[in-house]
Amino acid sequence: MKINPSKSVCSCGNQRNVDPSSKARKENELIVALAGNANVGKSAIFNQLTGLNQVTGNWPGKTVERAEGTLHFKGYTIHVVDLPGTYSLSAYSMEELVSREYLATEKPDIIVNVVDASALERNLYLTLQLLELEVPLVIALNQVDFAAKKGLKIDVEKLSKFLGVKIVPTVAVAGKGITELLSVVVSEATQRRKQTAVNVVYGKELETQIVAVQKLVASKLPQFCVVYPARWVAIKLLEKDSDITEKVRSSPDGSAVLELVERLTAELEKVHGESAPVVVASERYTLASKIVKDTVTVEAKPKISIEQTLSTITTHKILGYLILAAVVVATFGVIFAGGNYLSRLLDECLMWLSDGFEGLLAPILPAFAVDLLVKGVLGGLVSGITIALPYIVPFYVVLALLEDSGYLPRAAFLMDNIMHKIGLHGKAFIPLILGYGCTVPACIGCRIMETQRERLLSAFVVVLIPCAARTVVILGLVGQYVGLSAVVGLYVFDLVLVFALGRIAFKALPGEPVGLIMEMPSYKKPSLKTLVIKTWGRTKDFVYVAFPIIIVGSVIIEAFALSGLMPYFVDIASPIMTAWLGLPAIVAIPLLFGILRKELTLILLATTLSSIGLSLESLSAVQMIVFALVVMIYIPCLATIAACKREFGWKKSLYITIIDVGLALIIGGLAFRILSALMST
Amino acid sequence: MFGVKHSNQKTVRSLECSSDEVSLAELKEGEKGIMTRIVGGSSAMRRLTELGLTPGCEVKMLRKCSFHGPVEIEVRGVSLALGYGLALKVFVQPIKVPFNEN
């Protein structure tokens, strides 16, 4: 392939300020926007085009942020913008509004509408709206292999002719059709021809009304028609689109247009007996249905496939829950057993390294420098590798499997009832599960919830889910020295806590709970390649971000120990740490660093304890459990606080932080007292 | 599947008769219906419309969770999960399913 991904930028996770659509676009530069329903493979196409690793997965709503990347093809520099998946271009959700404003006002050179060939009718609903918007369009007919498996044969030529749009069949995950797609994209984009969808004509009554409004819009609101096509404005007005109606209302001649629209929608509603938005949506679906009838033939009635059977079993009334429980147990089993094994293996391998270095450096450097280097830098690195990685890598593998297979929506389906008890619906279970991996993407993932209230509520409970880093602490300390039953106890306690707090927050936050609406994707066999890429990407991110902090933290603590300031700090921290929580006062130091990263607490706990001549083993079982409990709850890490701040603002993030710190101290102190009493009897 | 037999007396009646209308939540697993209307005007209802649940379209009940849990339906070739509360607000006209099917 002649695709050369250049240095690319991706905004997954952070805001970008580079705007490729700035007016100073060069002659051989093109901007391509990817639009399509959720879970049709847009991110896969984006990754194929740009060589980036935008997160993919088999559940709707992964891409919540616009991702951008650049590639070079046939002498063109092509900027690719991956828009969040939407089913429509209405003003009901922020994502849809943002996407459509982007398409209408930023005017990308071409839009690639990624369409799921196996669910053509539903996908065409968006395609028709893109055609209404009169933007230059190319269709990537994705997952044609899956459609064929379902026994669907699509007459691509006929479909292309009818829509007046070039169509390229693709199988994005396998990289099929990507070069062809690029060629068509470049040739269509450079022609810059105006998209005229001659065949996108709705029912007679609606069509006469559209034309009537369109004429008035064109004559009364010329400034509007510079940005938006008159016909599109007419349709949106008839659909009672809140955004466009407001914009028209605030225009000088808007009232005349709105008067006509009001009269016509009333007429429309009287004739159809439905509200105007439903009438328009129905008309679009009628057309989509007609197109599908003309272009798709069902070759063979699909037999009940393995995927369907799997779907039936995993959502079964009884079996489904048993499987869900088994999946959870197996996940933690794999992480616990695999992590322990890897941890021990790495520990042995790296032990001689640190001893060797010490022997090597001792003759040439003064004692404190050797201590700083060996105990600080190398010690931090070794504990990072032996404590954190062994638990985190297996977790990432399992998480990727769950994501790619399509199991997560099934779990969400099963959990809908239970989630309703805390005022959320089943979809919130997905960020909750993601939270066991890392709280930051889980917090951002709360955007799959529909309202701001639900997003905040989900984020509030997601923050309390022990992420992989906290799992490291729980397994590495309590699991290693106290036992598996204590670990299970901690996790169960956490779930009870999440449930109880979620219920309180649900009662405290004003607003109505929303019902579940979720597309159930078909099961797909996860590809080994994606699995490896994904696990590697996440591990790499972890290493790049965590290791420098771990090493710097270790060095600072080592320096702190050498400086002789330790006793003073211990004095300050002892009322809370020793009197209330029953821990050595010096444990305040790892807890302080834990704000940066949670797994640091364990790594630095070992370092700080050794600096006062103790080791992890010298802590009592109760102390270990209390420590793990506090770490589990006490404060969202900096990255999480930053993510929360972006989603909900400073005030709410601060509330969440304060509530968590308070909770951790209260629960930690109580646990110390209760557990000590239990142990002594 | 099994539920179809019990409900047959009900579904044999003419399709035009609007008294036949039942909520989606009352449809049994494996049964089909023609969607007639959605009551209420919340944004959830509008989203259902956009996902293809428009008046006149065919809906098939795939699965129901126990204890008033969510339902999974097939509409326009796509599987959708719907909370029980929403399923109560979507009305359909059940279609008679021949015995040899399923």
Largest interface (CB < 8 Å): A-B, 40 and 36 residues
| Secondary structure: helix percent of chain B | 10-25%
CATH domain class of chain B: Mainly Beta
Q: Output the number of helix runs of chain A.
A: 28
Strand order of the largest sheet of chain B: 1-6-2-3-4-5
Name the helix and strand elements of chain B from N-terminus to C-terminus, one letter apiece. Answer: HEEHEEEHE
CATH architecture of chain B: Roll
Computed Rg of chain B: 13 Å
Mean pLDDT of chain A: 85
SS elements, strand count of chain A: 10
Q: Compute the number of structural domains of chain B.
A: 1
Are there runs of chain B of 5+ residues with pLDDT below 50, and where?
Answer: 1-17
Radius of gyration of chain A: 29 Å
Number of strands of chain B: 6
Gap between N and C termini of chain B, in Å?
A: 6 Å
Report strand % of chain B. 25-35%
Bulk shape of chain A: elongated
Query: What structural class do helix, strand and pairing data of chain A support?
Result: alpha/beta
Largest sheet of chain B: 6 strands, antiparallel
- Largest beta-sheet details of chain A: 7 strands, mixed
Secondary-structure-based class of chain B equals alpha+beta
Describe this structure in words.
The complex is a heterodimer of chains A (681) and B (102). Chain A folds into three domains: 4-191, P-loop containing nucleotide triphosphate hydrolases (Rossmann fold, 3-Layer(aba) Sandwich); 204-298, Orthogonal Bundle (Helix Hairpins); 319-515 and 522-680, no CATH class. Chain A is α/β, with parallel strands linked by helices and 681 residues long. Chain A has a seven-stranded mixed β-sheet with strand order 1-3-4-2-5-6-8, with helices on both faces. Chain A has a two-stranded antiparallel ribbon with strand order 7-9. The relative contact order of chain A is 0.07. Mean pLDDT of chain A is 85; it is low at 1-23. Chain A has 28 helices and ten strands. With 102 residues, chain B is α+β, with helices and mostly antiparallel strands. Chain B is built from three helices and six strands; from the N terminus they run αββαβββαβ. Chain B has helices at 3-11, 43-50, 84-87, and strands spanning 22-23, 32-38, 58-64, 71-75, 78-82, 90-95. The N and C termini of chain B lie close together (6 Å). Mean pLDDT of chain B is 78; it is low at 1-17. Chain A binds chain B through residues 87-88, 90, 92, 118-122, 125, 274-275, 277-278, 281-282, 285, 289, 312, 315, 317, 409, 412-414, 416-417, 420, 425-426, 450, 514-522, and chain B through 37-38, 41-44, 46-52, 54-57, 63, 65-70, 72, 76-86.
